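anyone seen this seq b4? input:
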Amino acid sequence: MSWSFLLAAFTPFNLMLAFVGVAAGIIIGGLPGLSATMAVAVLVPVTFGMEPASGLIMLGAIYTGAIYGGAYSAILVNTPGTPSAIATTFDGYPMAKRGDGDLAVTLATLSSVVGGLTGALALLTLAPMLATIALQFGSVEYFWLAVLGLTLISALSEGATIKGFIGASLGLLLSTVGVAVVGGDVRYTFGSSLLLGGVEIISALIGLYCIPVLIDLVATPDPHLRVSEKASGFRLREALGYALRSKFNMIRSAIIGTIVAILPGAGGSIASLVSYSEARRSSKNRERFGQGEPDGILATESANNATVGGGFIPTLVLGIPGTPPDAIILGALLVQGVRTGPELFTENADISYTFIYGLLIATFLLLPMGLVIGRYAFKSIISIPKAILAPTVAFMTVIGTYAIRNNVWDVLIMLVLGVVGWFLNRAGFKPSPIVLGLILGPIAEQGFVQAVLMGQAQGAVLPIFFRGPISWTIVAIIVIATLYPLFAMVRKRRQTAAKAGSDE
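predicted toks r here
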């Protein structure tokens, strides 16, 4: 690998593109409804007149910035700016509520940089090998992967597992609205053509997470966020201490994010939820998760930023987009006449390696730019009166929801789900299992139906679900993940009983 590729990434023009791309991505990703996919899609025409490597650097920087930017609204207004920031709300918003919003934003910045570097380094060193592994995943493996994701419900619904499963079932039901992913059957549209596209995930996110907060914001006299005496916009030294103590958690989560992103269609939302669950399971302070635990933010943000580099592995090596933004970037490459595949790393090494180094530069830029922009975002949110903040956020949610598909029906669905979500919160139902079911529903359905069709063609349906070592490995993980909470509960009861006996 020539040093010329690294020097090419450091040209003033490419550095400027990385800087502008990260800044634009952070701003767009931080606005509710404006996802990383939308950020890349809106700005991709700007790159058509550039050299392929430069265009890729700008798109990669936008993608990196947007994935990170989603943490701002997740932490400060409990609304995931991007679907990958869902899990960031679990501990980010509670931290902001108790006056540590600036610390939460700083933790998100540090962990995003660690995750982004991990994914980019995997892209640089392991791309061909990891892409080959991704090819081994078929419909059966994706089905089991979705089932594995649903086992996270027990972790996301501590103390209310039954309600968690009910919420996930509601999410799975919502995922069936519209045209079936296999077969094309029309379901639960009630004769309306507007529901043929189904329930849009980002619309559901905004409704379930943001609208209940807005209702409480208007209905209660309490301030939106407490302000700590230590509040300064960012708390770098304190955050570095947390990050160093939880370095294993961050690295593990970044690896999880990279691996999940390699699987086409999985995306950052699944990666962040899986990493959050693993961080919680392995923590000595499990009971503090969901109440403002820094480890929760470190896990989710390192995982979802690792998906940037991880998602590029199947995109560049195989021509199979790992995530929706990767699909748009792949289209931009094809427009410029660049073919993806193994030859991209040999015949067009100047393009691929210059881009990868540019992605690393963009990730490093995330640290200073994220801290500066995050500081102003935090101070703006806490200083804006509720009378201005509430209608502003409401306006942004409506515009952001409408802009996804230019569909008024999405806005109506968002509002309905928001009101329903508010009542469900009062009844002890958390939005996370609902969203999890909505995200995993299409993946599970497509994998299951395709596996059944293959089994019927071969004359044996059940054996098809247990083919190969990958399926057996995932099934084993599912069994362990399902039984672990039961073992933990039994052990805790025994310890309590033993302690009570010794006290007597």
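The chain has a mean pLDDT of 79. Strands lie at 178-179, 186-187. kinda curious what u guys think
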